[in-house]
Amino acid sequence: PTKITSDHGVDMTKKLILPEGATSTGGMRKILLEQGPEGYAKAVREHKGLLLMDTTWRDAHQSLLATRMRTKELERCAEYTNTALANAFSLEMWGGATFDVAMRFLHECPWERLESLREKTPDIPFQMLLRGANAVGYTNYPDNVVHKFCKQAHASGIDIFRVFDSLNYLDNLKLGVDAAGAAGGFVEGAMSYTGNVADPTKGKYNLEYYMKLADELVDMGVHSLAIKDMAGLLTPAAAKQLVGALREQHPNTPIHVHTHDTPGTGVASMIAAAEAGADVVDVAIDAMSGMTSQPSMGAMVSMLAGTEADTGIDKSLVAGLNTYWENVRNVYLPFESGQLSGSSDVYEHEIPGGQYTNLLYQSRQLGLTDKWPEIKRKYAEANMVLGDIPKVTPSSKVVGDLAQFMVAQNLNPQQVEDQAETLAFPQSVVEFLRGEIGIPPGGFPEPLRTKVLKSRGLEGIDGRPGASLPDYNFEEAEKLLKEKFGAKFIDDKDVLSHALYPNVFTEWKEFESIYGEVSKLPTDLFLSPMKENDEVEFELSPGRRVIIKLLSITPPRDDGQRTVTFEINGERWLMPVTDMSVASEANVRRKASGPNEVGSPMPGVIVNLKVKEGDIVTEGEPLATLSAMKMETVIPASTSGVVKHIAVNIGDKVDGDDLLVEIE
Predict the structure, then answer these.
(1) Distance from C-alpha of 630 to C-alpha of 627, rounded to nearest angstrom
(2) What pLDDT score does 24 carry?
(3) Which of 351, 393, 398, 493 allows an S-S link to 432, with CB 3.0 to 4.6 Å?
(4) What are the residue ranges in the chain where pLDDT is below 50?
């Protein structure tokens, strides 16, 4: 990210203190704990007024700041939030991308975040986003992993599980619903919303489609129904029509509506949903609301104050939270998407709010920033190429990967279909067409699917993708992890994290073994390195403070080594470090030319080599795997022959058209 200018003197955010005399009234969680999920559902239906769920701790920063919010910022306002939002239906604070990002980028334990915040916020139900059979990952897991994950999540503090599937595939949904229910949680069955029920010309996602899906979820035994509008497509007219129909058909089931404010109509849509009979709507603290985030909490609270739908939220207390989050957001400026206003073209491209910032960031990494408008158009085209599917993780990733691929390769939809046998599609697209994340509404796109699978010698998956996976061996995994990292550094939750993200978990633990628990660092220091003569003071543990001053950094040697000299509480330390940014100018790669030279289709990192020099290959056979952010692309042989030369190694960074393999 762009560096933050800071003197690194002290933390830039302070703990938020409640006004004198402000105390929690016990909160909605008391009802849930005393009466259980069924009793809570009944209490929600009988509640006078509109209930709110605050997304600030999860979806708001996932949508606006690429999920980079550290636990430290949440902890500092937790006790204040516990009182200010005691009348809220829930706080959404876990799940989605937060589990992955905590380890991958923040170098934190996601379970410690949950348990720390639960201790500091005892009175408000905690809600998480569960990706059905995908749990909090991007793939399918054995059933016992999903069940064990939900059981531990509930034990660590999650009360409400919003369960969805990116394709609304019932078999995947049922696994998530069953696992969350068996764990003892309040289960909210979510319908991933796309299209426009108020516009009969918008295709297969009409009112009948959602009513049937809602019936299926209620039959599964969910405690509430959620409309999960990932992109902000739910117009006020559509909200009124859909919520009204659901309320009439399911009078005893709470209805919860989620949207993103990308087009700027979020508040109007939530008001319309409330008037039509919704019990709960999603909002975010004003400073973390709007655009790709959720509608403004302050706007909803103010507009409904004194009406039958009064939210019961104290505006004066919310004002303190808003000031706190304004200051916090300034610290995270490097992760802002650059979007300065709403974008009504979301009705055309349908990019989910949670994906918007990540897709823009990935586009920059691929050198496609100037083509952002074209990427949005290609996103819409890619969606139709794939059969017009609901778009939310992981299906949204499939569409985004294909859109970027189409831009990079200058392809239109007809060319994608015509050249399907030979194109080096992103791996996520191939997996989707094979059926690895489920079956989309209306089935797979043909003849695209047949062409892609046949040319790669693959067969489609029938039914739920994870149903045939053998149980995960937790005991064996625990044994191996303790041997690798030490028994005192591995517990049951670590084993679960490894089961979900084996590579990410391993890299995080290896990072931690070198650098320690960087969660102790002040956020401005975590995001921006110290400069010579900078001095910083922070608390390592209660009562133990350190003052660190950076004295000097030597120029790099030919091998990239530098010597860093600094003082800790007045004691001088010298440490050799390797500057990975130092690279030889001799590492410029030549471009591929001719039919016997295979080049990289786009910039990225080589993550796998499937052949070695001297191997005999046939046209279309996989040679290597390229990763660009989270998108993996298998590079096929352009012709049959013998591998004469491999020009790259695993871990090498390459640009578009760089030579990878020569075939003779």
Answers:
(1) 7
(2) 72
(3) 398
(4) 1-10, 584-586
